[in-house]
Structures are given as C-alpha cells and as structure tokens.
Design goal:
Largest sheet: 7 strands, mixed
Strand content: 5-15%
CATH class of the largest domain: Alpha Beta
Subunit structure: Homodimer.
Domain Transketolase-like pyrimidine-binding: 384-549
CATH architecture of the largest domain: 3-Layer(aba) Sandwich
Number of strands: 17
Strand order of the largest sheet: 7-6-8-9-11-10-15
Enzyme class: transferase
CATH superfamily of the largest domain: Thiamin diphosphate (ThDP)-binding fold, Pyr/PP domains
Pfam families: DXP_synthase_N, Transket_pyr, Transketolase_C
Structural class: alpha/beta
Number of helices: 27
Pathway: Metabolic intermediate biosynthesis; 1-deoxy-D-xylulose 5-phosphate biosynthesis; 1-deoxy-D-xylulose 5-phosphate from D-glyceraldehyde 3-phosphate and pyruvate: step 1/1
CATH topology of the largest domain: Rossmann fold
Shape: globular
Length: 731
C-alpha cells in the first residue's frame, strides 16, 4: 500500500507541476512511474535472445473462464495475468498461424477492458478484429484456440455467432465507431435506466479510413455515451515502411497538420517550460517525465483534432502500463454525462516477443513458427505466387513507361506493390485504408494521362463501389483495377473471400473484365490491360502459388523450358480451346472455365474420357467475361449437348453472362442444349484451407466430373477427395 501511495503521489506531482488534470482539461498527460512506458520486471520479460520461452505454468489464467473471473484480481495480478495471456497467445498462434503482432500489442488493453467494464453488457467492438486472440482466450474460448482459423474451428476475427462477447463481427476496417454509436443510441432509444458504455477499439491503420471521421462527427452531434480507444502503434500499412511517393512514413498520418502545430511558437515555449520544470523534480520524477516531449506532441496536436470533432480527448497513455490504464478506464467508466470520449493509447505491435518486435511487419500475419527461435515453419515455394507474377510484370512495364504508377490501400505486401515501391518509390502510392479515395485518386491520375494500376483485394474493392461506377466507369477512364485474392482465400474465411467481384463489376457498362488461368496468362493480361487506354478494366486472380512449368506443360501443352520474360498482349474478348473432345465420341460435353478452375477442368475431362469411352470432353478457357467471346460460346453450344461453365465467384457472374447471351440468342429454345453454371454456393464458406473450401463449394475436379456425367444421364458416384496439407493463408 505504501508503494502504491508513493507511485500515486509521483504521478500527481507530475500532473500538478505541469498544470494539468485528468478531470479539469482535455489535454491530460499520464506518465507511468518508469518514464511513460512501464519496464517489465525480469520475471515478466522474455529472454534477451533465443531460446525464447514463456512461463512454465499459468496459475492466474487458469482461474479465468470468463471476464467476471478476473474482477477480484489486484493490479499486480493483472500484470501477471497479462504476461501469461501474452505467452498463451504466442504458443497458440505458433501452432496454427494467424495474426500475432496486433494481438500481442493489445494484451494489457484487453485485460483492462474486461476488468473495468461489465462485458458483454458494456459492448467492446474491436475494429478489424484481427487483434482479438487475447479477447477470445479470456471469453471462454481458450480450449478452442488449437482450432483457430481451421476448418470447423473458431474464426480469426470477432464473430457474433461464436460468442456473446463478440458483439459485432468484423474483418474489414473502420466500422467500430459507427457500430458502437449505433449500440449506444439503441440503448437510449429503449429507455433503459442502466448506465452503459459502448467501447470501440480502433487502430491508427483503421482510423485512416474516412468512415471513422464520419462516425466521430455524428457521435458528437448525437451526444451518446461511447468511448473510442485509439490504439496508436505506428503500423498503418502491411508492412509499414514501404518506399512510396510519401516516403516510408505511415500513410495517412496527418503529418502536415501536426507539423504546423508542433512548429508553432506557443508549443515551442511549452516544451521549453516543461523541460525546465522537469529539472526541479527529484530524479525519480525526472525519469517519469523522460518522454514528456513525445507525449506533449500528442497532447497538443491530437487533442486539438479530436476535440474539434466533439470528443473529450485523453492521452496519449501507455497502453502497456496497467498502473495508469486501469484507473483511467475506471474514471472514464464512472464519469457523468454522455459526451463521447477518445482515449489515445500508444502501444507496441508485437510487444513481448522479440522476434515480432524486431520484424519489419511485427509478425502481423505469420504461418506456424517455432516459439523458441521465432523461425517461421514454411516450405519454400516451388512456383511463384500470382501476386509476385503481377508485381514483376508491372515492374517490367514501368521500366519503359514512366507514366505507369501503382496504388494500394494499406496492403503493399499483400498486393505486391511493396516490390514495385522498392524499384519506383516516387510512382508508388499507399493511401492508407481508404479504398474509396484510392479509386477516385486513380481516376484523377488517369484524367491527366497517367496509367494507374489500382491494386486492391477483391473483398476490399467492395468498399469503393460507388467510386468505381461514378468516378471511373461512367467517365470511361482507363484505370486498371488489379483484384488480388479473387475467389476463396483460405484461413481468413468469409470476410476475406473475393466472391462477389464478378457479379458487382460485371453489371457495370463499359468495364473490361479478365481472369487468367495460370501465371503465363497473368503476365499476358497485365500487358493487355496496360495497353487499354480508352476504358477501365478489372484483372482478377487468386491468392497462393501458381501452377509451375511442369503442370503448365502437362495440362495445357505449353512446351516451355522457362517462363517467358515478357508478357504479350492478348486479343480483347477472345478465349481459347485448351483440348477438344475426341472425334469418335458419341456424347460430347464442353467445359468453359473462367479463371484458375481451368486446371481442374482439364483434369476432370481427362478422367471422364478415361472411364467412359462414349464421352468426349472439350475444355475452353474464356479469358474474358467482358467482352464475352460470343463466337466461342456459340461454337461450344452448337457442337456439344452439354455446356458447363466454371468460375471462382458467386451467382451473377460469368456463368450468368453466358446464360443471358444464350437465352437472348435463342440457343436454348429447342431444348437440345443442357447448360449448367458452376459457381460458389449461396452461403458464406468458413475458414479452412483453400482445398477444403473448394471441396465444400463443389468446384473441385470430382464435382466437375459428376456434373458432366449427371447431365449425360450417367450416374457417377462423387469420388472422395484427396486433399493435401496446405500452409495457413494470411491476408
């Protein structure tokens, strides 16, 4: 108790000397007893070098089944619990892979939130929610962590169907403040007497999205009781630090605004005064004020910005210092009135695990790894990834055309734009998590004759749909949209599947849409869309490794000894026949594939002809959805009794465009042609390997075979799948 009183007096003395008060002003400075960021005791820190290991036992964590179980813990016990929880998270993710760095950065915050607030009655909404692993462990799912992101297991994100503590699901960014505000207003509309606080936890990456500011603007207007916890870890993009036109600083950091404030004379005077006051304190207090300059910057610039939006601003606060974090949250919880509060905390992504702390991406997303060394347990890829093929192809083009630029929305690593940025930093634009801005920014570039390649995951492109139509397509601007992660994506599950782009882009007039069947076709299509200067285009392809030369030569007959060095522009709207049905076949089936289901289609055709001598199977690669190769479609429809389309997308995509053409052209009127589109089923497919997901979707080789034979009136038992183990996939 004496030590606690001494620490409290030290903090109070610091605040009084600076003329600041948590209750009396918005510019609250909270400094921990060890100089802003608490230094862990030797028993709670990882070893300086490998082997790294956590505690041998977890006595406090073992007592926690639900958040109510930690309500009686002391601050010292909460610190020890945090230590155990951090290593529980590390050990769990090491066995499954997943989003580690972000989870390690919010361990203390997660403990403090569940200790101070009455969850789930006080709803806590995690933005993006890739940082919820500690939250899941504390809310009754510790025993299920070995199933994290696995088929039939728990999600890697917050998921309402999984727990009452996951009050709002996520996976995409910048939604938490709006959701928290909606819950707060709903509570008030229902006239419930009990005081409740809605909490949104949002990072400095997510807060680059405009929706966060729309929500904050509305929150002050509605004057509802919400708390926004701004988790500032200086990791905006994945990875942050990619060379770009803005340098290597985090995208969207509002640096110009804060620089003007920090350079102003009043702030300079305040810094000088603060430093001089610091010299009057005993050495212990001087240590406590060691980071006063850093915190003062946040007090002036951050406070001004968020106060103008109508929030009561507190911070910055060390997000790893429970001595400060817990009482501050308690004061926020117990405050009167309904003014929205923004608590600005500073945290370290990857905190407490040296390999994560030292990595450029802070182990944001990792495969399985060895805890003792931090070594990632990956098998070297035998073939290039589709992402790297795109990046290399674009670099080759840009080397001879200075008008080519690359744009990404905080995903340089996932889209390959980081590779482009290292070669052409001044022509690389990372706009932060701001897809709407990315699209219209690209449109503006195109107006002036620049050739923008806007690389965004298929699932994130949904966030900029109006801009795609209104700002690009309607004006016929030649923006090249590069949609990575098309189709099913594996362990990240339904929030990240690229299921809908063919449906939502295919209905837009004037769009060109193509999808490669393999890596050589991808290289050619990058060249093709580069040469399209009079219309917008969308090039979609899946995540993961490409097929490799052996498969290309075997299935597609390429006869290559090496990959072509350069891509070759393809004829617009023209597909190709990959194999023809044998001439003597009595019954003929055509499979028209769009995208990388082509390999499965060829394998299915081969197997059908092996097991049934009556049947011949033609396989064609559509290449283009818009413009559709209608001559190829007519040829397949008139020369075969069965036509199957196959794609990695939802209903409303490629198959529907083919059906629409056939119906309007009268090719279905005589009833001789049987047509079946094979698409993703009308449901959300949960986490698992990509192989497992395409089996569940019914789009693997054996389902293509069964569909063809059934349409011929030949019953065929669907063969059991032979899935191979896959590395965990991470966005």
């Amino acid at each position: 108790e004496r030590r606690e009183r001494e620490r409290e007096m030290g903090r109070l003395s610091t605040l009084l000397a600076l003329g600041l008060s948590l209750d009396a002003g918005a510019y609250a400075l909270v400094v921990g007893p060890a100089g802003g960021r608490r230094t862990a005791s030797p028993t709670m820190s990882a070893s300086a070098g490998p082997p790294y290991q956590g505690p041998r036992s977890t006595p406090l964590l073992d007592q926690v089944s639900l958040p109510k179980d930690l309500k009686g813990f002391s601050l010292a016990e909460l610190k020890q619990l945090s230590h155990e929880l951090r290593w529980e998270t590390i050990n769990a993710v090491s066995k499954t892979g997943g989003h580690l760095g972000s989870s390690l950065g919010v361990v203390e915050l997660t403990v403090a939130l569940h200790y101070v607030f009455n969850t789930p009655e006080d709803p806590v909404i995690f933005d993006v929610s890739h940082q919820v692993y500690p939250h899941k462990i504390l809310t009754g799912r510790r025993h299920r962590m070995p199933t994290l992101r696995q088929n039939g297991g728990i999600s890697g994100f917050a998921k309402r169907a999984e727990s009452e503590y996951d009050i709002f699901g996520a996976g995409h960014s910048t939604t938490s403040i709006s959701a928290a505000l909606g819950m707060a207003v709903a509570h008030e509309l229902q006239g419930l007497d009990k005081v409740r606080t809605s909490i949104a936890v949002i990072g400095d990456g997510a807060i680059t999205g405009g929706m966060a500011y729309e929500a904050m603007n509305n929150a002050a207007y509605l004057n509802s009781r919400i708390v926004v916890i701004y988790n500032d870890n200086e990791q905006v993009s994945l990875p942050t630090g990619t060379p770009s036109a803005g340098g290597t600083v985090p995208a969207g950091s509002l640096s110009a605004y804060t620089s003007r404030l920090i350079a102003s004379k009043p702030f300079q005077d305040f810094r000088d005064i603060a430093k001089s006051i610091n010299k009057l304190f005993p050495s212990e207090i001087q240590q406590a004020n060691a980071k006063i300059d850093e915190y003062a910057r946040g007090m002036v610039s951050g406070g001004t910005l968020f106060e103008e939006l109508g929030f009561y601003y507190i911070g910055p606060v060390d997000g790893h210092d429970l001595d400060n974090l817990v009482p501050i949250l308690e004061n926020i919880r117990d405050r009167g009135g309904k003014q929205p509060v923004l608590l600005h905390i500073k945290t370290d992504k990857g905190k407490g695990y040296p390999p994560a702390e030292q990595a450029s991406d802070k182990y944001h997303g990792v495969p399985k790894f060895d805890v003792a060394t931090g070594k990632k347990l990956t098998t070297p890829a035998k073939t290039p990834s589709y992402t790297s093929v795109f990046a290399d192809s674009l670099i080759d083009i840009a080397a001879t055309d200075r008008s080519v630029v690359a744009i990404t929305a905080a995903m340089p690593g996932g889209t390959g734009v980081d590779k482009f940025g290292k070669r052409f930093p001044k022509r690389t634009f990372d706009v932060g998590i701001a897809e709407q801005h990315a699209v219209t920014f690209a449109a503006g570039l195109a107006v002036e004759g620049i050739k923008p390649f806007c690389a965004i995951y298929s699932t994130f492109m949904q966030r900029a749909y109006d801009q795609l139509i209104h700002d690009v397509a309607l004006q016929k601007l030649p923006v090249r949209f590069i949609l990575d992660r098309a189709g099913l994506v594996g362990n990240d599950g339904p929030t990240h599947h690229g299921s809908f782009d063919l449906a939502y882009i295919g209905c837009i007039p004037g769009m060109v849409i193509c999808s490669p069947s393999d890596e050589v076709e991808l290289k050619n299509m990058v060249q093709t869309v580069y040469e399209l200067d009079d219309k917008p285009s969308a090039l979609r392809y899946p995540r993961g490794s490409a097929l490799g030369l052996d498969v290309l030569n075997d299935l597609f007959g390429y006869g290559l000894d090496a990959y072509p060095e350069k891509g070759v522009a393809l004829p617009l709207g023209k597909g190709r026949i990959m194999r023809k049905a044998r001439e003597d076949a009595k019954r003929k089936v055509a499979i028209l594939s769009f995208g990388t289901r082509l390999a499965e289609s060829v394998q299915a055709a081969r197997h059908i002809e092996t097991i049934d001598e009556e049947v011949g199977v033609t396989v064609a690669d559509a290449r283009w959805m818009k413009p559709l190769d209608t001559e190829l479609v007519v040829q397949l429809a008139t020369e075969h009794e069965v036509l199957i389309t196959c794609e990695e997308g939802s209903i409303g995509g490629f198959g529907d465009h083919v059906l629409h053409f056939l119906a309007l052209g009268g090719y279905l009127d005589d009833g001789k042609l049987k047509v079946r589109p094979m698409v993703l089923p009308d449901k959300y497919i949960e986490a698992g390997s990509m192989g497992e997901q395409y089996e569940e979707a019914g789009l693997s080789q054996r389902f293509i075979e069964a569909t063809a034979m059934r349409l011929l009136g030949k019953e065929m038992k669907i063969r059991s799948s032979a899935l191979v183990d896959e590395e965990p996939t991470i966005a």
